[in-house]
Amino acid sequence: MKKKYTIGWLPGDGVGVEVLEAAKIVLDRLDFNAEYVHGDIGWEFWCKEGDALPQRTMDLLNRVDAAMFGAITSKPAKLAEKELDPSLQGKGMTYRSPIVRMRQSFDLYICLRPTKSYPGNPLNFKENIDLVVFRENTEDLYAGVEFSPVPDELKETLLKLAKPFKAFDGLANNDYAVSCKVNTRKGSERIVRAAFDYARKHGRKKVTVVHKANVVRATDGLFLDCAREVAKDFPEITFDEANVDAIMMWLLKNPFNYDVLVAPNLYGDIVSDLCAQLVGGLGFGCSGNIGLKLGVFEPTHGSAPKYAGQYKVNPIATILSAKQMLEWLGEIDLAKQVEDAVAEVIKEGKVRTYDMGGSNTTLEMGQAIADKLPALATA
Length: 379
Ligand code: IPM
Ligand code: MG
Description:
Blueprint: E1 5-12, H1 15-28, E2 34-38, H2 43-49, H3 55-63, E3 66-71, H4 77-83, H5 98-105, E4 110-116, E5 130-136, E6 146-147, H6 152-161, E7 178-179, H7 185-201, E8 206-211, H8 217-231, E9 238-243, H9 244-253, E10 260-263, H10 265-278, E11 286-290, E12 295-299, H11 316-328, H12 332-348, H13 362-371
Parallel strand pairs: 1-2, 1-3, 3-12, 5-10, 8-9, 8-10
Antiparallel strand pairs: 4-5, 4-11, 6-7, 11-12
The protein binds 3-isopropylmalic acid and magnesium ion (MG).
Magnesium ion is lined by residues 269, 273, 300.
């Protein structure tokens, strides 16, 4: 008997709904035995309930094997408060990004973002690019340890401990904010180890750690130290170090110098967007948020409100995220079928969404990819 999976299905809003619909056309054509359970998430639930990621959706995520997530609209805190149902206003509710909450609540510490240039994609920066980004996904500047206004206790401590910093002269007028970058040894070690394990498993030659330890000495220094330590366990893999600013240039100059990249959360966010652009941009940036028990797979693009309802955006990023989900579930053959089908449609160039210079819809792209899949054996 084939295992039956339970997949959380979280479209969210805007084009998130549309790209997930396209991915479903593909998944439905596979020999993949799954029950898809819808989860409420998104702007609508923030406005109505004061929570964009309601507890019932958290409970659902606790019981699924994996989840697919589309995208959600986020707005700055002050605007978000204004759109809340009047009965909820003034209660001190603050909007926090649901995807960041999911990553932290379920300890999805790996953000895995493969970026590959599929032959025939008119948007490829260069052919034969094949990079894999490992982004730490739970801490760093995303830790949520932020203050605005800054409470007196923190102000006093800062004044005492950080005297040399000239800008603190302005503390008296209270016109400043503090976001703490928090990186732990555990968090740093496990993401670097995940990158090396992946490199070993997939025959990759090199792992590059991305940092800014020359300036951000404490946190990036720790991250870099951890990386150097972990690298010793993988003598067959070349270990390389790069400053985050410099690597933005080098990746553009020669992406072939890189293989697997590993970075703290915010640098990983930035590096992975650049890498996505090297292979066609937002329509191709796929990702997996992976922990020990749960994986949540999503395109890296947002909800693109200006395209919502038009079924125009490219679903390939989402379909490749579904492929990552299959891989993570151990359905390696199915994952390969999906990737081959995507590659085939890109190579043929007959069906293209607007970003690729075509006029096909989101669902037509999904259908074209599904049509390339091997026919299902009928029992
Ligand atoms: C990403 C996105 C998110 C992030 C946003 C939507 C919170 O940019 O997944 O890369 O910053 O992590
Ligand atoms: Mg991002």
